[in-house]
Q: What sequence folds into this?
């Protein structure tokens, strides 16, 4: 009897591995964020990520310039991406891991909403119901009735969800015309410049071990991105994408082991509602019950980080993918 895994399992298992790396990445951000500003972490993460990104760009065979075909959409995507990244780093540095993930998990629901004005798609009553339920889950996590418990970290996590969803939908809209390198470099450079401009204000001299942890942050994001590329090459998007929800398990484990965090009942309840809402939309799209599939095309758990995760990397890798997959890669994110 063959010991090989069934092909249908390879993609989801690779995705689980990638999201485990991403969760480890976020633990390191939280650990370093206890001492250093989020802007300082972003600056060095991008700086140390440039060599890895350059290796990817050197393999891009697409001809053209770095001038965007749709400058205003690229501008809006860059703003959304920078907001998502800075919000994520601040939220992970200041909130329990499980709460951050629960709020970021609302991003696929927001993709459904934003697909209406940006992509011109129609959302039926089933998906609207799932979106409303998901937003109820967000309220359960936030508990706005307890004003004293709300912090800037909660707002930052919501900014991450909104920015990630916005950037993802824009890439889906313009991904056929824009080069992957353009989609990749503009948010990356914006993060580097903005964080660099704030360095004279926020900089704290860094220990070698802390700088090494930030280098590991960059490496984990890069490795996780490559594994996610492999996951989408070997599995269906509708099966691979929901694996992002495994991060709530890692959040519970890492939070308890490293930060003495134990998610309370309301966090679990809200996260459960949000996850079920997202899964409902994905399942309807994968079963053909929905005419459009903005969430099934949403590929990365966070559209913009210190340097590339999935969407831009997918485009850079398109010329090496199996026949028929290039169209999927060009279609843009699920991120």
A:
């Amino acid at each position: 009897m063959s010991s090989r895994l069934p092909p249908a399992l390879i993609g989801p298992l690779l995705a689980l591995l990638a999201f485990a790396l991403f969760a480890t990445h976020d633990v390191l951000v939280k650990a370093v964020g206890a001492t250093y500003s989020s802007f300082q972490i972003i600056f060095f993460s991008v700086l140390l990520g440039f060599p890895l990104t350059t290796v990817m760009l050197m393999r891009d065979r697409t001809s053209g310039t770095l001038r965007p075909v749709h400058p205003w959409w690229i501008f809006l995507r860059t703003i959304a991406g920078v907001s998502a990244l800075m919000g994520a780093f601040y939220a992970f540095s200041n909130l329990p891991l499980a709460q951050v993930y629960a709020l970021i998990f609302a991003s696929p629901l927001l993709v459904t909403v934003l697909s209406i004005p940006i992509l011109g798609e129609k959302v039926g009553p089933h998906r609207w119901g799932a979106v409303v339920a998901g937003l109820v889950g967000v309220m359960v996590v936030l508990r706005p009735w307890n004003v004293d418990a709300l912090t800037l970290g909660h707002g930052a996590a919501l900014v991450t969800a909104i920015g990630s969803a916005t950037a993802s939908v824009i890439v889906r809209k313009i991904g056929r015309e824009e080069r992957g390198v353009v989609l990749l470099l503009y948010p990356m450079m914006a993060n580097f410049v903005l964080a660099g401009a704030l360095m004279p204000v926020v900089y704290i001299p860094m220990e070698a071990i802390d700088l090494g942890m930030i280098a590991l942050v960059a490496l984990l994001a890069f490795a996780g991105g490559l594994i996610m590329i492999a996951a989408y090459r070997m599995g269906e998007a509708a099966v691979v994408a929901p694996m992002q929800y495994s991060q709530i398990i890692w959040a519970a484990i890492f939070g308890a082991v490293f930060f003495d965090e134990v998610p309370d009942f309301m966090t679990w309840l809200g996260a459960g509602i949000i996850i079920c809402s997202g899964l409902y939309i994905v399942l309807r799209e994968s079963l053909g019950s929905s005419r459009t599939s903005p969430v099934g095309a949403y590929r990365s758990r966070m559209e913009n980080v210190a340097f590339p995760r999935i969407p831009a990397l997918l485009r850079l890798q398109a010329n090496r993918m199996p026949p028929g997959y290039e169209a999927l890669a060009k279609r843009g994110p699920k991120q």
In short: The chain has one domain: 7-330.
